[in-house]
Amino acid sequence: MVSSHNGVLVTLSILIAVAASYTALDIAQRVRESSTRISRTAWLAAAALCMGGGIWSMHFVAMLAYTMPGIVISYDPLLTAMSLLIAILVTGGGFALVSRREESGVALCLGGLFMGAGIVAMHYIGMSAMRMPAHMTYSLTWVGLSILIALGAAVAALWLAFRGSRTLHQGAAAVVMGFAISGMHFAGMKAAHLHASEEPAGLVSSTFSQGGLAVGIALVTLMILLAAVVAAMFDRRFAALAQKEALSLREGEERFRKLYRGTPLPLHALDDQGRIQEVSDAWLALLKLSRTQIYGRPFTAFMTEDAAAERMREDWPALLAQGELKDRPSRLVAADGRILDVLISSRIERLREEDSPRVIEGLIDLTERKATEEALRQAQKMEAIGQLTGGVAHDFNNLLTVIIGSLERARKKMVEDEALLRLLGNALEAAQRGASLTQRLLAFARKQNLDPQVIEVKSLVESLQPLLNSSLPANISLKTDVPAGTPPIKVDPHQLEMALLNLVVNARDAMPEGGTITVAASVDEQPPSALAGGRYICLSVTDEGEGMDVETLSKARDPFFTTKGVGKGTGLGLPMVSGFVEQTGGLMVLKSELGSGTIVQIWLPQEQEGGGQLVERIDGGDNNWPVDLRDQVILAVDDDALVLMNTEAMLEDLGAKVIATTSPLEALQLIETRSDISCVVSDYAMPKMTGGQLLEESRFLRPDLPFVIATGYNEAPISAPATTLLVKPFTDEALNLAIREVCNQTLNPVIGPLPTDVFPRALS
């Protein structure tokens, strides 16, 4: 039989298929996004209704486009309704399979096959609903082709629809699905062959005409359009909500980012590979870096090599396993090369379970605290060494007093044997060098006796310059820069000269290739924070030598540490200078870099206006004082029997009558009972009663009794009339001078350390 198709209705059927597919696929996306079962079911039903109804509408609009001359076509209501119901149920099942949150290829294929089979079933049930005076046969080839078109196009359409972007992918999916439905329908129609029949078209009452079918199609199409309008309204609503949510999220992220960056703590965030994603401003300030230098780089790139290896070997695996680590020590390298000691606390955070882990870490900078602790340990160590050194030097002074005194008496009695006198002279010189070494130890321990005087810095440096020049080779020049009008300082001039000489000699030894040594003074520099308030003068000695590395610089103050060869230094030069300066109330500062020379600064307090009167200083060297103490009864007191015997022998050689005792209590009784005692020579550090206490008690008995207190270091705060201090080890001349002066004066002259011509000091 000859048949034809109405082109307008065919085009309309295809458009209905595409529109229904787009609407249904768009609504189906809501199923996956729904948070409740009720909303999920509602969206699934709406999608099934739109897709199933659209397929059904497209089919019967296309059937209306099919005409045969002289043939009246009607439709079975039950089969027609069944075709609509099957289309809705089967497409709903397909959507239910593919819209689950756990997307998989198997579910996608099953959903596509299920939906394609439903399209085929709907088509052929709809074909069987046709009632006309003809019977229909099918070509198996075209039937099979129509089934393949339905199945393949359904799978492809669902795959496109659920890939992501609604506008692009759903549009393509709708076109594919629409043409698939249309293609399947017209392939199925091609498979059908109509043959005229003699039988009349019965059962007209149970069928409805093409007009009734058109009404049904219009209703279903209106339903689909209504669903499309509702879906579009929801789309606009969801788009507005999504835009608002995105804006709120961006604002929240920006607020969080500002809060995170502005926190006063050094924080950073890492991805699961340990790469830096975000840091706080305090973190950047700590490491002296900018954000462009750190984003995307591994955090270990800013660690020392050892610290980075330990983190990857121990800390990172432990963090991933435990989820949190606290106070793990590490070391970072700042942009300026500083090594930072830090504690790192770490925690793994996930916004959602499916997200990759994000590591949040905070730093605690321990650099300054460790430096302070190290400085405290160093100070405690130096204090302990100083206490030990001071005690040893004090005892050694007692021994040297005996040795020097005994050698001097032996030399006086050996007047004819020149060889023996030479040996005694060598022994005496060695003992005097030992006394010089003891003075250095006492200077380091800050327990030497000082004789502070107000001096002009410029005059002292100028008077010392010839001696300094004589100690330098021809390839080293000395430059002095002491401005006129530099304020005076109150210091022991002899010890300051020795300190400057030590520093210049050290600078000389650091410049084997020659250069310039500069001795300068300044009052404009800011004093170190370690100094107490007040005004200071900075004396500096600068060389152009090799300089010191960090390790050597940290040990330079340690006693007996030296970089010179064996026999070329004692390692007491800088410790002696530091001890003397600190005992004076100042500070020594070392500045050096390898290859850039060394600067040694001596900060000394300026003389305050209205300061106290200076104590007169009496040297005990080679003087032409009379050595005859005949008619003098002198009480000698010392708890050390050897020292007491030596002092007694010295006094007897000077002509005095000596009463000797090792007990200060017995000495006190003798002072009370012996009115002929003209002077007391007493040690200071004695058990049960010190020399100072003996002096105080004796003044109640004899207020005018002269006292000479012999001491190894400045442990004797004595300031009483007719009293003087005598520094050990001392010579016959110094002892005689002290006794004669204290017997003739009412004030307290001080017998200080012997000058260099009596006890020469070895430099280091």
TrEMBL record:
Q: Where is the MHYT domain?
A: 5-195
Name the EC number(s): 2.7.13.3
Response regulatory domain residues are 633-743
Q: Does the keyword Transmembrane apply?
A: yes
Say which enzyme class the record assigns: transferase
Keywords carried by this UniProt record? Membrane, Phosphoprotein, Transmembrane, Transmembrane helix
Locate the PAC domain: which residues?
326-378
**Is Transmembrane helix set as a keyword in this record?**
yes
Please list the reactions this protein catalyses: ATP + protein L-histidine = ADP + protein N-phospho-L-histidine
Q: GO CC terms on record? A: membrane
At which residues is 4-aspartylphosphate found?
683
Identification of the protein by name = histidine kinase
